[in-house]
Design goal:
single chain; about 300 residues; alpha+beta; seven-stranded antiparallel sheet; five-stranded mixed sheet; about 25% strand; globular
Length: about 300
């Protein structure tokens, strides 16, 4: 590992964050950050969000190492030089077609697996396993937890393997990718691959999604994609009504409030109404944005929330 290598390791690629920069400053994005019961909106430099120092560094058998360069060479450079991303950065979204479906799915999956929140999830689930709180695990899952218990730094090693994994799962060719254009801006976050439905839970998008695993990834201010597993495969590219974008945007806000993302990327006219919907009240304007404080915060995922 090079001693003067950068320590600020981005779990959200800066090339992705650049899709949401401010109109008058190509190095900053408008974000919302939570501080307990206070939400603060302000501009942040893209190199100051979506990272953890030394996230990709490790020590194994007494020797320091890092996957930081490998992430760039194996994942980021091939994707950004690929046809799909070139269509996105050139804002040629209308040309996205079925040949781009696997690339969109792979990118969404990679963003989910490389996120800092994924490392924390692995650690938390293993702690629950050790505490005897996980029931009805498959043999394969039990073996994984046994390996984690026996391997020094096992959680981080598993995380690193997931970050560099380029193999597609067996269901990759049975996915349905729905590229969507919205008349209002989409939001994103520093945990951009958003789970919006899964079997056994009522979906905010209607009964037809209840039996499906569905993710959302915002691709640009006005474009994004649903990735659906469990139904018929396919690909579509079409406009969606404002109401669909508003539901997606509210899910990103809920993600922030649940602590599953550090920053919400939001610069749309419905942000302040949505903060009120979530139980926050305006407190003050600031030189860079505004502050809201929780007054009747209720989990929007709870049955009682209207």
């Amino acid at each position: 590992m090079v001693t003067n290598a950068p320590k600020r390791h981005h779990y959200v690629p800066q090339f992705y964050l650049r899709r949401f920069v401010c109109a008058d400053d190509e190095n900053k994005v408008m974000v919302v950050e939570r501080h307990r019961d206070i939400l603060v909106a302000a501009r942040k430099s893209i190199d100051r969000i979506g990272y953890e120092e030394g996230l990709h560094d490790y020590v194994e058998d007494g020797e320091p190492g890092s996957i930081e360069d490998h992430v760039n060479k194996v994942i980021e450079t091939p994707f950004t030089n690929g046809t799909t991303w070139l269509k996105i950065v050139s804002e040629n979204f209308a040309s996205l077609d079925a040949t781009d479906g696997l690339s969109i799915y792979s990118f969404a999956r990679h963003l989910q697996r490389r996120n800092f929140n994924m490392l924390r999830f692995i650690e938390a689930e293993h702690a629950r396993f050790q505490a005897g709180e996980l029931d009805s695990l498959a043999d394969e899952e039990c073996e994984m937890h046994q390996w984690l218990a026996e391997t020094p730094g096992g959680a981080h090693r598993l995380f690193r393997e997931a970050v560099l994994d380029t193999m597609l799962p067996e269901d990759a060719h049975a996915i349905n990718v729905m590229v969507c254009q919205s008349p209002i801006p989409f939001r994103s976050s520093t945990n951009p691959t958003l789970m919006v439905s899964h079997p056994g839970r009522e979906s905010v998008f209607g009964a037809m999604f209840n039996s499906l695993r569905t993710w959302w990834l915002t691709l640009d201010r006005h474009w994004g994609a649903f990735i659906i597993v469990g139904g018929p495969p396919g690909f579509s590219n079409h406009a969606v009504p404002e109401e669909v974008a508003r539901v997606v945007n509210q899910r990103y806000l809920v993600q922030l409030l649940h602590g599953d993302a550090r920053y919400l990327l939001a610069d749309d006219p419905y942000l302040e109404p949505d903060l009120k919907w979530a139980g926050f009240a305006f407190e003050q304007r600031t030189s860079r944005g505004f502050r809201y404080r929780a007054v009747s915060w209720a989990d929007p995922d709870s049955p009682e929330h209207d």
